[in-house]
Design brief:
The chain has about 525 residues and is mainly α. It has 4 domains: about 80 residues, no CATH class; about 100 residues, no CATH class; about 80 residues; about 190 residues, Intergrase catalytic core (hpI Integrase, Chain A, Orthogonal Bundle). Helix content is about 50%, strand content about 5%. The protein contains 20 helices and 8 strands. The chain has a 3-stranded antiparallel β-sheet, covered by helices on one side. A 3-stranded antiparallel β-sheet has the order 6-7-8. A two-stranded antiparallel ribbon has the order 3-4. β1 and β2 form a beta hairpin. α4 runs antiparallel to α6, α5 crosses α6 and α12 runs parallel beside α17. The chain is elongated, with a radius of gyration of 35 Å. The N and C termini lie far apart (about 90 Å). The C terminus is likely disordered.
């Protein structure tokens, strides 16, 4: 059973997706979900998600209430799947008796004025059959919703008549209770017990693959998986389903997965991608389905794809001459006609920022004016998921190299308007696609200077920053903190990388010394 979830509060909630095979029938129906001592009405929308507060912040109570709610929902799904049923006379009488008992439970101990119940009883006695049907119809609908049952129209008519009798009996009883008469209720022994049909435990005959993914996705979001990862998993799983030719997880076999692997390799997809992306995705989704008893066995076999070592003909990062060339081009860059000012600013400053921080290009492109600020003697850049995508979703603050101040970066920031420094966007949602566009422009910009395809035009700075750090014996942990590399073991979680430690490490990094720009001779000098 899935655990209750907390949605921006301490209160636990039940979230449940309507099974795909009954979704069409469930949309716009009203569920009456039991939550402790109350019944909560929930209308099923087109999204097919049932969400209800469990009205407690106690995990143990929340699990108990969720179990009861899920049992109710299972009955509803089974009833929708099986279609309307006809209840016999005993079941109709028992169900009307269930309503009678619930009404007693609510009102018997504190019924209020006896005359009010007497008036209701008198009115009910005067109804003819048609009026009784009309008056009882809302009670019939509500009662069927509470027990999660779909019945035939003929059963509804008989149930309305039975509820009319129970209504008269209940109002008569409550009139007596209102007068102080608490003599034992003689009807209790006459009413048969309502025994709801148990939910069948037969194994499912079909489990849609994309329904499994949707359920997996909900847990993945709670685990803070990135939207990029979810989109990639969804896309790859859909391609696999299209390849197999059906979406039934119960029909999938290891041979299907092997055929998929072979087809991907034959299409020119690299062995690394097939192993670490294609097969890893299938293992994750179907492994989760097996662990959660959605399918008996994962169809993904244990395949050992051994990756050969690449021939490294050169270092992964920029060489010193390449770095100098790129930084010279950045320093001397003049905006092209009709080029956006912020794109030109990115070409001017982002290569320098990456050279002195080893940060990912996207992290620098999405810097905002407020993310760069003074902290004592240091100029600090804050890299945060609030601005855009950050790989580990962790905010980090890094000291900027003093050379960047001398080059005028602080003045550029101070003279910029509020918001993003290098993209025209008002918020994170607007910035996301535009950050990628600027990254692409930077890639093209660097490629004009460094055309060696064996080095990444954007990622090459991260490799170079690490290489230089080793050459000057800068503290590895501090260098990793500046770069934003993931921590390797539990020891890395202890202690902080202070601004002083970062400044000490950066002080060991030599400056990139570039010849001054060549000044064109004035007409007078030329003469």
């Amino acid at each position: 059973m899935p655990s209750p979830v907390r949605l921006n509060s301490d209160v636990h909630y039940l979230r449940k997706r309507v099974p795909s095979d009954v979704l069409a029938a469930a949309v716009n129906t009203t569920l009456r979900i039991p939550v402790g001592e109350v019944v909560v009405p929930v209308r099923v929308g087109r999204g097919g998600i049932v969400k209800v507060s469990l009205r407690t912040n106690d995990p143990k109570i929340a699990k108990e209430r969720q179990a009861a709610a899920l049992f109710y929902l299972d009955k509803v799904w089974a009833s929708l799947k099986n279609g309307p049923v006809r209840l016999d006379h005993q079941d109709v009488t028992a169900l009307a008796g269930e309503w009678y008992r619930r009404t007693k439970k609510v009102w018997e101990r504190d019924p209020g004025r006896a005359t009010l119940w007497g008036i209701k009883n008198y009115e009910a006695q005067q109804w003819d059959a048609a009026t009784a049907q009309e008056q009882m119809w809302p009670y019939v609908a509500e009662l069927l919703e509470e027990v999660g049952l779909q019945v035939t129209e003929e059963t509804k008519v008989r149930l309305a008549a039975a509820l009319h009798r129970s209504f008269k009996d209940a109002t008569a009883l409550l009139e007596r209770r209102g007068r102080g008469d608490y003599e034992a209720d003689p009807l209790e022994k006459k009413i048969p017990e309502w025994k709801p049909a148990t939910v069948a435990n037969d194994p499912p005959t079909r489990v849609p693959v994309m329904v499994l993914f949707a359920d997996w996705e909900r847990e993945a979001r709670l685990a803070n998986r990135t939207e990029k990862t979810l989109d990639e998993y969804r896309s790859l799983l859909q391609r696999f389903v299209d390849f197999v030719g059906h979406d039934d997880a119960l029909r999938l076999t290891p041979e299907d997965v092997i055929r998929w692997k072979d087809a991907r390799l034959a299409a020119g997809i690299s062995l690394k991608t097939v192993k670490h992306s294609d097969l890893a995705t299938l293992k994750s989704i179907f492994g989760w389905a097996e662990e959660n008893r959605r399918i008996a066995h994962s169809p993904v076999p244990k395949l050992k794809l051994k990756l050969g070592k690449k021939n490294h003909e050169r270092e992964k990062g920029f060489t010193h001459p390449e770095a100098i060339s790129v930084l010279r081009s950045a320093r001397d860059y003049v905006a092209a006609p009709r080029e956006l000012d912020k794109t030109a600013a990115a070409k001017r400053w982002v290569p320098w920022l990456c050279a002195y921080t080893g940060s990912r290009v996207g992290e620098m492109v999405q810097l905002r004016r407020g993310d760069v600020e003074r902290h004592g003697p240091y100029l600090i850049a804050t890299i945060t998921p609030e601005a855009g995508k950050v790989k580990d979703k962790q905010t980090r603050r890094v000291v900027l190299h003093p050379h960047l101040l001398e080059l005028g970066f602080a003045d550029f920031v101070n003279n910029s308007s509020d918001g993003y420094l290098f993209v025209n966007a008002k918020n994170r949602a607007e910035a996301e696609g535009r950050v990628q566009a600027v990254k692409n422009r930077l890639c093209e910009f660097v490629r004009k200077t460094v055309d060696d395809v064996r080095v990444s035009p954007n990622h090459g700075w991260r490799h170079r920053f690490q290489t230089v750090g080793r050459n000057v014996d800068a503290n590895e942990g501090v260098v990793n903190a500046i770069c934003g590399h993931g921590r390797r073991d539990v020891a890395d979680d202890y202690g902080d990388r202070t601004f002083e430690a970062m400044a000490t490490a950066l002080a060991k990094y030599p400056r990139y010394v570039i010849d001054p720009p060549v000044m064109s001779a004035s007409p007078k000098a030329a003469a």
